Every structure is written in structure tokens, then in C-alpha cells.
From TrEMBL:
Record keywords: ATP-binding, Nucleotide-binding, Transport
Recorded family membership: Belongs to the ABC transporter superfamily.
Entries under SUPFAM superfamilies matching the protein: P-loop containing nucleoside triphosphate hydrolases (SSF52540)
Domain ABC transporter: 6-245
Organism the protein comes from: Anaerosporobacter mobilis DSM 15930
Gene Ontology MF terms: ATP binding; ATP hydrolysis activity
Source superkingdom: Bacteria
InterPro entries, sorted: AAA+_ATPase, ABC_transporter-like_ATP-bd, ABC_transporter-like_CS, MacB-like_ATP-bd, P-loop_NTPase
Name the UniProt record assigns to this protein: Putative ABC transport system ATP-binding protein
């Protein structure tokens, strides 16, 4: 098994609304391992996004510890947390949050300059990433509104990778894309994972889940099932899909 890079210990998250407390995560323990493509599944409202946000420092847990390479991040103040996220985490979401008033290249470079002063290095890496995800030079200076949903999501993915995050967190990144664009994004995620990028992704979609080598199932704020698979290959997909379907059925999905 690979080295653990992120741990949650006795994680609890409670939301209060209308005077009522809702316990979404309760005493949840999890390790995220370097190089894994970890998928979080579970029924709607089971707490998948809440878990992703807590693990990535986007939101503070109510109780418990989040430990990234030995540092407890739940105790960081908001500036320190923002620094942690910028430096170590990449994010892609279903909604694509690119800045509309700048080109996709500038969106990427701006994110890179927040972390590094080495502008030539950032520009070089951005160009490499654009080519790696199949976005040709002709569109680098286009604004987000001039691009298709799939192109925008690929640009958002480059932005999330520009600072070489230790972990890429993704929340249904293909949820708003047509199946061909969704497949392109999954192919890119698979490729970067094969090159060593650790990924934690929430999805409802078996087509996305087959890309993982580890699937966590959560129910009522707890991990109730875990499936380990070999790294994704385009062969034996029927067998892989069957294993995932059986696993989901066992968990009453
Ligand atoms: N900021 C918040 N304030 C109050 N309740 C919240 C908040 N964020 C999430 N919740 C509640 O926590 C529960 C879990 O939400 P979460 O988004 O983690 O679920 P999910 O498993 O990702 O669901 P889905 O698959 O539908 O996206 C839901 O009942 C939701 O209403």
C-alpha cells in the first residue's frame, strides 16, 4: 500500500439550521494514500461533499483532526488554511469557476503566480498542461464564454494542477458535461493519476468510478464500505464494472 498523505481522525461535522442540529459526519476515520485515485460514493445527502470539503481544508470540521503530511490543518487560522489549499490542493467542481474577464491562459497563470514568483517556469508548465489536455494554442487567449463546457472544464483542470498539488480534489467534475466531454476529462484524470497525481473525487457515476483504484462508500456520515481495484486499464472493463456494481449493491446504493 502507498504512503498515507492525508488522514482524518474522528472527524465530525454538524450543521445547524432552524435551531436543529444535523450530524453529517460522525467519528469518521480515513487515510488518503499517495498516488491513489480515490472515489467517494454514497447516496444523495450522505455527506460526500462535506467530507471532501473537510479533507481539503475548504471547510473546518466540528470535531476531529485532519493531518496532512504530519501537520494538523484543522487548527490553522483562515489565512494559513488558504495558504495550505493554494500550495497543496487542486480543486475541480461540477460548476466551472473560471474568471470570466480573463483568458483561460491568464486564469491559469494567475493561479500559478499566487504561489510562485518564477514566471517563466509557470508559463512553461501552463503551456505543457494545455497541450497535455488537448487544448491547442489557438484557444489559449479565448475567454471562458467563448469555449465549450468540456474545454472550460479542461482549462479549470489545468488551473487546478498548475501548482503541482499534492492532492487533486474533484466534486462531480463531469456532472455537467456531455458524455464525450466527460470521457475526455476522465481520460485526463486517469492519465495524470497514472503519472503519480493523487486524486480524491466524489461521483455518482459508475463511468467515473471505474477510473479509481479505491472506492469508499459513505452512509449516514460513516464509511461503510471500501473496494480496492487494480489501477485502471481499458481491458477487462466488464469485470471492473461488475465488481463496482456488486460493491454498490452490497451497500444498498
Ligand atoms: N452549509 C450547510 N448548512 C447546512 N446544511 C448543510 C450544509 N452543507 C451541507 N448540508 C447538509 O448536509 C447534508 C450532506 O450534504 P452533502 O452535500 O455533503 O451531501 P452529498 O452526499 O454530497 O449529496 P449529493 O450527492 O446530493 O451532492 C445534506 O443534508 C445537506 O443539506
Amino acid at each position: 500500500m502507498n504512503k498515507s498523505i492525508l488522514q482524518a481522525k474522528q472527524l465530525c461535522k454538524t450543521f445547524s439550521s432552524d435551531g436543529q442540529q444535523q450530524h453529517i459526519l460522525t467519528n469518521l476515520d480515513i487515510d488518503i494514500y499517495e498516488g491513489d485515485f480515490t472515489i467517494i460514493m454514497g447516496s444523495s445527502g450522505s455527506g460526500k461533499t462535506t467530507l471532501l470539503y473537510a479533507l481539503s481544508g475548504m471547510d473546518k470540521p466540528t470535531l476531529g483532526k485532519i493531518i496532512f503530511r504530519g501537520t494538523q490543518i484543522q487548527d490553522l487560522n483562515s489565512d494559513e488554511l488558504a495558504g495550505f489549499r493554494k500550495k497543496h490542493c487542486g480543486f475541480v467542481f461540477q460548476s466551472i469557476y473560471l474568471l470570466e474577464n480573463m483568458s483561460i491562459m491568464d486564469n491559469v497563470l494567475t493561479a500559478g503566480y499566487l504561489v510562485s514568483n518564477n514566471k517563466p517556469e509557470i508559463i512553461k508548465r501552463a503551456k505543457e498542461l494545455f497541450l497535455q489536455v488537448g487544448l491547442r494554442e489557438e484557444i489559449w487567449r479565448k475567454f471562458p464564454s467563448q469555449l465549450s463546457g468540456g474545454e472550460k472544464q479542461r482549462a479549470a483542470l489545468i488551473r487546478s494542477l498548475i501548482n503541482k498539488p499534492a492532492i487533486l480534489f474533484a466534486d462531480e467534475p463531469t456532472g455537467a458535461l456531455n458524455s464525450s466531454s466527460g470521457k475526455d476529462v476522465l481520460d485526463i484524470l486517469t492519465k495524470i493519476n497514472q503519472n503519480g497525481q493523487s486524486i480524491v473525487m466524489v461521483t455518482h457515476d459508475i463511468k467515473a468510478a471505474i477510473r479509481a483504484n479505491r472506492i469508499i462508500y459513505i452512509m449516514d456520515g460513516k464509511i461503510c464500505g471500501e473496494l480496492h481495484l487494480d489501477k485502471y486499464m481499458e481491458t477487462n472493463l466488464d469485470d471492473r464494472i461488475k465488481k463496482i456494481r456488486d460493491f454498490l449493491r452490497e451497500n444498498n446504493w
